[in-house]
From TrEMBL:
Keyword Zinc: no
Entry keywords, A to Z: Signal
Annotated signal peptide: 1-23
NADH:ubiquinone oxidoreductase intermediate-associated protein domain segment(s): 459-573
Database matches in InterPro entries: Amidohydro-rel, Galactose-bd-like_sf, Metal-dep_hydrolase_composite, Metal_Hydrolase, Metallo-dep_Hydrolase, NADH-UbQ_OxRdtase-assoc_prot30
Protein name, as recorded: CIA30 family protein
Record domain Amidohydrolase-related: where: 74-412
Gene3D superfamilies: Amidohydrolase, Galactose-binding lectin, Urease, subunit C, domain 1
One Pfam family in the UniProt entry: Amidohydro_1
């Protein structure tokens, strides 16, 4: 979903041919097998050259075949996360047994490079990526707010050319957005006629067309238009029996599949993935930045009743025989690649699926839905994308976390897992050098000559221009001779917030590191304190941390009189003070003119 680039090293030489390395042969003996649909007891599974040669081997293995003990363990197909935005941490999901990711919007150059590696059979160090590439949205629609230019459309006559351009780029399927947003943040959206034309254009090329929706009406419209699948359900506290029944019947009649994405719906409801966050078998693969993202949901406070409708809807769809796919929407706050799929499986069970059905939702069901005929099953001729776990996950879904071994195209992933665990352990042991904060805590050393600071690269104007926004800001020292009540270091900030970026801002930013966006360890403080005066409007303090694209924000109000604002770090949900990159004081996101004055900014231990 976000702006990114990925530099992959591809060796190319004129007149040379690329031959993928041959994977070792091995036999997993006496193992329980979940074959993608059901459990088979006490099987011997033979792997040769990256493929499952025999899922029920009964002979004597060759001398060079490695024997792996499967007793007391369950062998699963490699897991498939049916909804991600794979813009970073490409190797991470594989370490959790996710061997394929279905990507719903990512960088086209990156998609092309991974497509080429997959074509060459040289993608063993990361999950395969089955991607929509660029999503179909209206000008100013959802998907245009991330600071990168993407091709949009707004009339049905443009649909076939738009679809053909995506397929030429290497998209495996087409993703369409029906999203009108909220009263606070409305989006332009494709109309029904254009959505129908896009779906028809995809089907003409024998490609799937899936649809992003945000509420009941949008879901109804998507299914009526002929969508092959809904890539989200929606949060709500209640739904009428008729609306529930009609939507379920529509999905069944249209032969559509559903990806509920509980991981991100829970995040929107302010709920953390506590089960995996508390499981060191899971978190020992996550660095600080990755933990920060997982530990920071969208919602400001937990509201579990918002999950009533998606839970009921998932249960009803499943009972009616509508295919349910496990997908996390990883790449969003409150989620994380790989680990969140194990949580998603538990959420599906909580919503009414049996553990066996949940396992199918992350293996054979998405493989079938997205027409991936070489994966999602433990069967002869299939890719040797495999996950071996202790215990019986068909009885206790949390046993998917008892990871013993992972194979991608027949190559063992254990060494990568161990290397990552050691790397995370070293990172946790090696804290960033603690910044020495002045005794009085003051970080605003403002004067007519300079917006100075006692450390870091200091204070600078900040706007949404890097995200293609059009807001502006003007900062100057106050004339304390005219404003006798103003502190000596007071500055005036006049901001104009304009449309352009979905979450426009302008203001003043402090960079505490020695270089732009370098993390600084500000753990010596736990409180931000400042004096402010303004036009009576609301503003925000936004703290960014290393590796995160969405700052942690706390709102504050201004009045016509100087007042002191005190904000404990604990108000910034999930903040890790050891990796702070920016502290900003911003106007926005509402459009308009803003003016406030600020002074005496301090970081304190209280």
């Amino acid at each position: 979903m976000k702006k990114t680039t990925l530099a992959l090293a591809l060796a190319v030489c004129a007149g040379c041919f690329h031959f993928p390395a041959t994977a070792a042969s091995f036999l997993i003996e006496r193992v329980r097998v979940f074959d993608g649909k059901k459990i088979q007891a006490d099987k011997n599974v033979l792997i040769v050259d990256g493929k499952i040669q025999d899922s029920n081997f009964k002979g004597k293995p060759a001398a060079d075949v490695t024997i792996i003990n499967g007793k007391g363990r369950t062998l699963l197909p490699g897991l498939i996360d049916a909804h991600v935005h794979a813009y970073k941490d490409h190797e991470l999901p594989l370490l959790y047994g996710i061997t394929t990711q279905i990507d719903m919007f990512t960088n086209v150059t990156q998609m092309k490079e991974i497509n080429e590696k997959m074509r060459k059979g040289d993608n063993r160090e990361r999950p395969d990526l089955i991607s929509a590439g660029v999503l179909a949205t209206a000008p100013g629609g959802h998907g245009t707010e991330y600071g990168m230019s993407i091709p949009t459309l707004n009339k049905p006559e443009e649909a076939q050319a738009w679809v053909d351009a995506r397929l030429a780029e290497g998209s495996h399927f087409i993703k369409i957005v029906i999203e009108h947003g909220s009263d606070k943040r409305p989006f332009n959206s494709l109309d029904t006629t254009t959505v129908k034309a896009l779906i028809k254009a995809a089907h003409v090329r024998n490609k799937l067309a899936v649809v992003h929706i945000g509420n009941l009406k949008e879901a109804q419209d998507a299914l009526a238009a002929g969508a092959d699948g809904l890539v989200h359900l929606f949060n709500d506290k209640q739904i009428s029996d008729k609306d529930m029944r009609d939507l379920v019947n529509s999905a069944k009649r249209k032969h559509a599949f559903i990806i509920p994405t509980f991981s991100v719906l829970e995040s929107m409801a302010g709920i953390k993935e506590q089960d995996v966050l508390a499981d060191k078998r899971m978190t020992n693969l996550l660095g600080k930045v990755q933990m920060q993202a997982l530990n920071t949901p969208f919602g400001a406070r937990p509201d579990p009743d918002l999950l009533n409708v998606p839970k009921m809807m998932t249960a009803a769809m499943h009972a009616a025989g509508v295919p349910i796919l496990a997908g996390t929407d990883a790449g969003n706050p409150g989620t994380q690649y790989g680990i969140s799929l194990h949580h998603e499986l538990a959420s599906l069970v909580d919503a009414g699926l049996s553990p066996t059905a949940a396992l199918a939702s992350a293996t054979s069901v998405p493989a079938s839905a997205f027409r991936l005929k070489d994966r999602g099953r433990v069967a002869n001729g299939y890719k040797a994308d495999l996950l071996l776990v202790d215990g019986e996950p068909d009885k206790d879904i949390s046993n998917t976390r008892n990871i013993v071994d992972i194979w991608k195209d027949g190559e063992r992933v254990t060494a990568q897992r161990e290397q990552k665990q050691q790397e995370v352990s070293r990172q946790n042991a090696q804290k960033n050098l603690l910044v020495e904060i002045p005794a009085d805590g003051r970080i605003s050393l403002f004067s007519k000559e300079k917006l100075a600071s006692p450390f870091g690269i200091g204070w600078h104007p900040s706007t949404d221009a890097p995200m293609a926004g059009k807001s502006s800001v003007n900062i100057k020292m106050l004339d304390t001779a005219k404003e006798t009540d103003a502190p000596a270091d007071a500055i005036s900030i006049a901001a104009t917030i304009n449309p352009g970026f979905a979450y426009p801002w302008a203001g003043l930013a402090f960079f505490p590191g020695r270089q732009p966006m370098e993390a600084a360890n500000l753990s010596a403080a736990n409180t931000l304190k400042f004096r402010v005066k303004g036009d009576g409007k609301d503003y925000s303090v936004a703290i960014s941390v290393q590796g995160s694209y969405i700052p942690l924000s706390v709102r504050f109000n201004t009045t016509s009189e100087w007042q002191e604002v005190v904000i404990p770090f604990s108000k910034f949900k999930g903040l890790d003070a050891s990796i702070i990159t920016v502290i900003a004081f911003n106007a926005g996101p509402q459009i308009g003119e803003y003016h406030f004055e600020i002074a005496d900014i301090r970081l304190l231990k209280e």
